[in-house]
Design goal:
The chain has about 90 residues and is mainly alpha-helical. The chain has one domain. Helix content is about 40%, strand content about 10%. A hairpin with an 8-residue loop joins strand 1 and strand 2. The two termini are about 20 Å apart.
Length: about 90
């Protein structure tokens, strides 16, 4: 498991690479990192080839949201349009 400080550092690096954004929605106690859809990061990954390939990013993007993010928070993020409903599983 990643510490809060490690998470903040990784989230910051990914935001700088334009691959997503950290979000704390109203009523949430913790911050979650929302990855951009693969079709929105093609240029960012091309500019940062050491991060990962588009295929790997796409595969990881399509994984279900981590079980450490509660179902209520996942539904809230989906209702805000930040994650697709198919990732609520």
């Amino acid at each position: 498991m990643m510490s809060s400080k490690q998470f903040a550092n990784v989230a910051n690096d990914l935001q700088k690479a334009n691959l997503g954004t950290a979000v704390k929605a109203p009523g949430m106690r913790s911050v979650v990192f929302i990855k951009k859809p693969p079709e929105e990061v093609t240029e960012a990954l091309a500019a940062n080839p050491d991060l990962c390939s588009l295929d790997r990013y796409t595969a990881r993007y399509n994984l279900p949201v981590s079980k450490s993010v509660s179902l209520g928070v996942r539904h809230q993020l989906a209702s805000m349009g930040l994650i697709p409903e198919k990732l609520l599983k």
